[in-house]
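Section 5.1 Outputs to date
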Amino acid sequence: MASQNSVTTLDDQRRFIRRAIDLSYIGACTKRVGEPFGAVIVKDGKIIGEGYNMMTMNSDPTAHGEIVAIRNTCESIKSLDLSGCHMYSSCEPCLMCASAILLTG
């Protein structure tokens, strides 16, 4: 049986995906036009990390929204293990991002 903290409501899920979409807008409309992709990482019903596409801004072809969210979260919690977390993304992750999601649990 799941603990109360791990249960998310439909409203929570909508809030998380809405934040990922909002981040995608930020990524697309920053100083240097970027790509419209954003992601949030959630644990126990709380957002613990987020990111948006920074490829153009950072001249980094790996800086997809999901990768940036993973980097930010791992740095924040000082761990490479994101087991028990859920990712909400504004789009279907590419193979690189899907691999990073699998690698971090």
